[in-house]
Amino acid sequence: MTDNPSDGAKMDFASDMSYGDYLRLDPILDAQHPLSEAHDEMLFIVQHQTSELWMRLAIHELNAARVSIRSGNLRPAFKMLSRVARIFEQLNGAWDVLRTMTPSEYTAFRPSLGNSSGFQSHQYRLIEFILGNRNAKLMQLHAHKPAATAALEAELAQPSLYQVALDLLGHRMQVPDLAGPVGQTAWQPQDRIQDLWQQVYEHPETHWEIYELAEKLVDLEDYFRRWRFNHVTTVERIIGFKRGTGGTSGVGYLRKMLEVELFPELWHVRGAL
After folding, report:
1. Is 218 exposed, middle or buried (0-12, 13-18, 19+ CB in 10 A)?
2. Over the chain, what HEC string results?
3. What is the domain partition of the chain in residue ranges?
4. Fewer CB within 10 A of the end CB, N or C, for the chain?
5. Lowest mean pLDDT: which of 44-48, 130-134, 213-217, 225-229?
6. CB-based burial of residue 80 (10 Å sphere; 0-12 exposed, 13-18 middle, 19+ buried)?
7. How many Å apart are CA 243 and CA 251, to the nearest integer?
8. Which CATH class name applies to 39-271?
9. Cα–Cα dist 127/24, whole Å
């Protein structure tokens, strides 16, 4: 008898797939290339790279949830939407790590960023487009990336997640054409939609699945808003009110984004109940 924990474990992977092979860790772990000698640039790179990986998963889940909602199969969609909310909880935790960096430490490598900025993340833009906050003018940022442009154009050609949810709401409440046409601008609140959500919230036992869908959407936006808020406070803590590297007004722009409502009727209805 031995206390060696490796007893029985496969040790030779010369001809078999290993953990690192399956996850393709070599290119992932070789993707961090600081452009300065500053110690904290590695933190900045890793934080943003891992955030992009989490956003990739969020896109995967949101697209699948939309398909499920469109088919009326809501239970899998509930699981996926809950997962996306937790993904943004994870992204919130990443800001806590980045906030360990001081303004002096960031200043040491900020020139290395050039004009690069998180504002240019096509995955973040795709998430916003999926959720209904659409601004086709921002496509210009991604014109130099054909694959990113194609993904964003494909998204703008279909209903947002919220529109699909509204289609289902309209079907269940026998109100046709509730979601309106596919658009390339941000969703604007409508009184008739708020009135229908109010009926759902006033009689949840009658509309339980739609009621639960509404709460999953609110939960998702809640975590998304927290992510935006933490982004603002992190930027203000590190660079104050300087302009962003990508040319935006920095904190001013981010604070304006805090006012955006993805599913406005679901928030406004609370004051009417």
Report:
1. middle
2. CCCCCCCCCCCCCCCCCCHHHHHCHHHHHCCCCCCCCCCCHHHHHHHHHHHHHHHHHHHHHHHHHHHHHHCCCHHHHHHHHHHHHHHHHHHHHHHHHHCCCCHHHHHCCHHHHCCCCHHHCHHHHHHHHHHCCCCHHHHHHHCCCHHHHHHHHHHHCCCCHHHHHHHHHHHHHCCCCCCCCCCCCCCCCCHHHHHHHHHHHHCCCCCHHHHHHHHHHHHHHHHHHHHHHHHHHHHHHHHCCCCCCCCCCCHHHHHHHCCCCCCHHHHHHHHCC
3. 39-271
4. N
5. 225-229
6. buried
7. 8
8. mainly alpha
9. 25
0.90 exceeded by the pTM? yes
